[in-house]
Structures are given as structure tokens and as C-alpha cells.
Amino acid sequence: AVVSTQSGHYGRGEESSSTTSPTSTGTLSLVSRVKGISFMILVSIGGTIHGAIVKHINYLTVGEVMYISSVFYLCFLSMTVSFFGAPIVGFSKKILVFTRLLIGTTALFGKVWSVQNLPLGDATALFFTSPLFTAIIARVFLKEKLNPVHIGAMMSGLAGVILIAKPNFIFKTNADTETPPWYYYLVPILSAICLSTFYVIQRNIGKSVSAYTIAWHSGMFQIVGGVLYHVGSREEYTIPACFLPRTLLIIAGLCVAHNICLKNLALSHEKATTANLIHNLDTALAFIVQVGLFGVPAEALSLVGAGLIMLGTVCLTLSKILGFNCGTEF
Q1: pLDDT in tens, 169-180
Q2: What Cα–Cα distance (Å) separates residue 74 from each residue in 82, 184, 287?
Q3: Residues 160, 121: contact at Cβ < 8 Å?
Q4: Residues 207, 199: Cα–Cα separation, whole Å
Q5: Average pLDDT over residues 87-107
Q6: Mind listing the pLDDT tens digit for each residue in 45-60?
Q7: In a 3-state reduction of DSSP, which class is residue 203?
Q8: Are the C-beta atoms of 199 and 130 separated by less than 8 Å?
Q9: Residue 291 · residue 297 · CB < 8 Å
Q10: pLDDT given at position 79
């Protein structure tokens, strides 16, 4: 009964996909929390599968991957929107929603590019620095206070980013080593900043627009953006003619839709702060896939850097859950 009720709320725009917990007035039951955590674990698994597929078919352009997989994503979301009765037109705060969609699509493009051009674990770890940037952006635009825990988490995350990117003005690298240029690592960081801005905008949208309405329009943005990117880059059209890559593109699109729907369900059972904490599983799974599936060894510095980023996001999230701020705010 809990699932169907909360899912219905999302369809009517009464809950946000990434911000508000529906149980703020009461304590979450153990069963509900187990369901929410289980859904978030499935979201992490779906995100890892999507990343592995994008990495496997990296001979396709970013634009092709985006618009082809988004067609199947949109087909699935169309059925979901119809089932929950979410409006496609006639919703409020259109300018904010448009901005959210534009920034969110940019973040996804950056993530796909990063997975194609960087080690999977490194790209995922850097992409999930977004909670650290969210705290900064929320301080600037929403006037939310920072405390020593936030500052410490940001410093830990920054140290992790440096260890993963290994900029040559800090680290001496062997010219014969085949490693991506350090500035490639700026792309997932910029994507993380876009994702952080995306979450801050979502806080302003709040409960006024259905999460499924936004998800449907997000699919449209991804298709249009994918076509424009592909045309603008003037890269050769390499749509696969064999069965396996086509199937993988379909699965990639369904993984994105799967994650959006399951995250909505997860947030109907569990607080957003806890859900974001579980996102650290994405980084661990990405390194496992990188080593086990693609046979690319994880560098020691990258593992330490990913650990520092995860430490920062864990501390930041736990401080919100426990309400710990050291008594000092900035």
C-alpha cells in the first residue's frame, strides 16, 4: 500500500525526485527504510551497468549513444507518465524546469564523454563529487550555512580529485605512459558541478511539478541534444549494424529510465540524505567493473583519491542525518 500511494503522489507532482522526503513529519518504519535502501542499491547497480555499456561501445560518438539510447528511454517513460497520469504540458515553473533540464542534460553528456575517455572508476568517482559542490552552490544561491564538517568534506574531496587527475604541474609523469591528459578530468568535474546546480534548482521547483513530467522532458532534451552534438561534432555516423551493440544501446536507455523510476520509489521510502550516501556504492562498483570486466588495473593513487572523495561525501551526508555542525556556521 505504501508503494502505490507514494508512487501516485509522484505522478501528481506532490513529491520531488531529488529533494524532499515524504516522511518528514514522522519516523520511517524499518520495512520502509529497507525498501528505500534496496531501491537505491538497485539504482547504483543500474548506473554501473549503464557506465559499463557506454565504455564497451565507446567506438560510437557521444551524440549517437545519447540520442539512440534516449529514444528507448523516452518510450519507457511515456508509458510511466501515462500510468501515473503526470502532465506533459500545463505544469508550473516552466523557466526553472527548462533550466533544470538543460543543465541536467549537460551533466549527462559530460558523464558519457568521461566514461568513454577516462578509466571507468576515475570518471565515476569524479562525477560523484557533486554533493560537495552542492553545498557550495547552495551556500551562494540559497544562503544555506556551511560548517566545519562541510569544509573538511570539501578539502577531502579536493585532495581526492587531485590524486585521481594527477595534474602534471603537481605530479611528474612518464612521457611514455599512455594516460589521459590531466585536463580530461575537468569534464567529469564540470559535470558534477552541473549536477549540483541541477539539484539546487530542483529544490526551488519542489513539489510543484511531477518528477515523471520532468523525466519525460529530460528524454526529449537528450534526444535533441544528442542529434545537435553529433551534427556539430561532424563525426562519422557509425550506427552499429550487428545485434549486440544495438541491444546494448536499448539496455542503456532502459537503465536510465529504470534508475529514475527506482530513485523516485526509493525517495518515497527513505530520506534523500541517506539515498545520496548509498550513491558511494556506484564508485566502488565502477572500480570492480573496470578491473574485472575491462581488465584495466586501478592505480593506487586513483583508489586513494576515490576513497577520499567517498569519505568527504559520507561525512557530509552523515552530518545532515545527525544534525552535527560543531556549533559554528559560516
Answers
A1: 677 666 556 778
A2: 12, 30, 29
A3: no
A4: 13
A5: 89
A6: 999 999 999 999 888 8
A7: helix
A8: yes
A9: yes
A10: 87
Which is more confidently placed, 123 or 5? 123
Q: Which long-range contacts (CB under 8 A, 24 or more apart) does 235-240 make?
A: 235/61, 235/63, 237/64, 238/59, 238/60, 238/61, 238/64, 239/60, 239/64, 239/68, 240/57, 240/60
How big is the chain by its Cα radius of gyration, in Å?
Answer: 20
How many Å apart are CA 24 and CA 243, to the nearest integer? 48
Element (DSSP H or E) covering residue 119: none
Query: In the 3-class helix/strand/coil scheme, how is 53-111 assigned residue by residue?
Result: HHHHCCCCCHHHHHHHHHHHHHHHHHHHHHHHCCCCCCCCCHHHHHHHHHHHHHHHHHH
3-state helix, strand, coil in the chain (%, to 5): 70, 0, 30
3-state secondary structure of 249: helix
Which of 254, 276, 221 shows the shortest CA–CA distance to 106? 221
* pLDDT of 256 higher than 60: yes
Per the CB < 8 A criterion, the answer to whether 136 and 199 are in contact is no
Write the CB contacts of 95 (distance below 8 Å, at least 6 apart in sequence).
Answer: none
Q: Which residue has the cell 503522489?
A: 9
Rounded Cα distance, 283 and 121, in Å: 6
